[in-house]
Amino acid sequence: MTQLTGARGRDSVARLTAPQSPARKGSLAGVLADPRVRLGAGTTVMLVTAIAARRHRVSRGEATAFRVVNGLPDALYPSAWIVMQLGTLGAAPAAAAVAWLAGDRKLAGRLLAGGTGTWAASKLVKRMVRRPRPATLLLGTHRRGPDATGLGYPSGHAGVAVALGAAALPHLGPAGRALTLAAVPTVGLTRVYVGAHLPLDTAGGAALGLAIDAALALVQESRWPTTRQGGSAAGNGACCPRRHPGPGSGKA
User: Fold this and answer.
1) CA-CA distance, 41 to 237, in Å (whole number)?
2) Residue 58's CB: how many other CB atoms inside 10 A?
3) For 3-10, which contacts have Cβ atoms below 8 Å and span 24 or more sequence positions?
4) Domains in the chain: how many in total?
5) In a domain, 22, yes or no
6) Is the per-residue pLDDT at 87 higher than 70?
7) Mean pLDDT confidence for 113-133
8) What is the residue range of 93's domain?
9) Is residue 236 in a domain?
10) Quick one: which of 85, 103, 94 has its CA closest to 171?
11) Sorting pLDDT into bands at 50, 70 and 90, what band is 221?
C-alpha cells in the first residue's frame, strides 16, 4: 500500500500493523484500531445522543458548554471559518484527490466514500431526529457568518471531519497525525462557535462519521484480506506456504 509519507510513512504503518505487545493491545489506541470496536462505539454514541436530542430541549450542562464556546470573541471567526472547511462536503473529494495523486487509490476511495457517505447520512438522521438549530432553543445565541438553515442534529461538518481523519490517520507521519488529531475535534467546536450546532449535535455527528468509516474499513478488509503483518494474503505468500530449499538444493 502506497503511503502519503513515502518511506518514512511505510515504516510508520509497518510499526502500526506489526504484532503488538500485550500492553499495547490493552491500550485505548490498540482497542480503537479494531474497526469493529469503532463501529460499535460510534453507533452506540450516536443512538444515545440522538435519543437525548430528540427531546427538543437543552439540558443545563449542554447549554453551559454551548455558551462557553459560542461566547468566545468575534475576532476568532476568520480562523474558525478556515478550520470549518475541513468538514464541508467539498473536503471529501479534495482529500481523495490528494491521496490519489500520492498513489494510494484504496485510501482515495475510502476518503471519498466516507466523507460523502457521512454527509448524506447526516441529512437522513436530521429528518429522523428533527432537532432545531441552537437559536431556536436558546436565547442569546451568537450567530456568526451565514445563518445555518435546516435542522441541527447531527452536525454533518463534525461527521465528515471524523470520517476523513479516521481514514487518513494511519497513513500520516507523526506531525500529520498530531495536526489531524487537533483539527478534527476543532471542526466540531467551530460549529458550536458560529451558533450552528449544540454540543450533542457535534457529538452525534462525530459518532456517525466514526461508524461510517469503520464500516468502510470492514468492507475493505473483506475485499482485501491482510495478514497480521499488514500485507495482503496474496502479496506476501500467506496463502501458499513458501517452500524452503533442501540441504542439497544448491541455493544459499
Assistant:
1) 34
2) 20
3) 3/102, 3/104, 3/171, 4/98, 4/99, 4/102, 4/104, 4/107, 4/168, 4/171, 4/172, 4/176, 5/171, 5/172, 5/173, 5/176, 8/173, 9/171, 9/172, 9/173
4) 1
5) no
6) yes
7) 96
8) 34-222
9) no
10) 103
11) confident
- CATH of residue 120's domain is 1.20.144
Q: What is the pTM of this model?
A: 0.78
> What crossing angle do the helices spanning 105-129 and 199-223 adopt, rounded to 10°?
140
Q: Looking at the domain assignment, is residue 240 inside a domain?
A: no
Contacts of 96 (CB under 8 A, 6+ apart): 108, 109, 111, 112, 115
Amino acid at 222: S
- Alpha-carbon torsion, ordered 24, 27, 29, 31, to 10 deg: 100
| 2 exposure class (CB count in 10 Å sphere: 0-12, 13-18, 19+) | middle
Whether the CB-CB separation of 203 and 49 falls below 8 Å is answered with yes
Q: What pLDDT sits at residue 251? A: 42
Cell numbers for 176, please give them.
500529520
Residue with cell 454527509: 119
**155 lies in a domain?**
yes
Which residues lie across from 226 on neighbouring strands?
Answer: 232
Of 27-36, 37-46, 131-140, 217-226, least confident by mean pLDDT is 27-36
Distances (CA, A) of 27 to 21, 43, 45: 10, 21, 20
Q: What confidence tier does 31 reach under pLDDT thresholds 50, 70, 90?
A: low
Query: Which ranges of the chain would DSSP assign to H, the alpha helix?
Result: 6-17, 22-26, 28-32, 35-53, 60-70, 77-84, 91-101, 105-129, 134-137, 156-168, 174-193, 199-223
CA of residue 252 relative to chain centroid, distance: 48
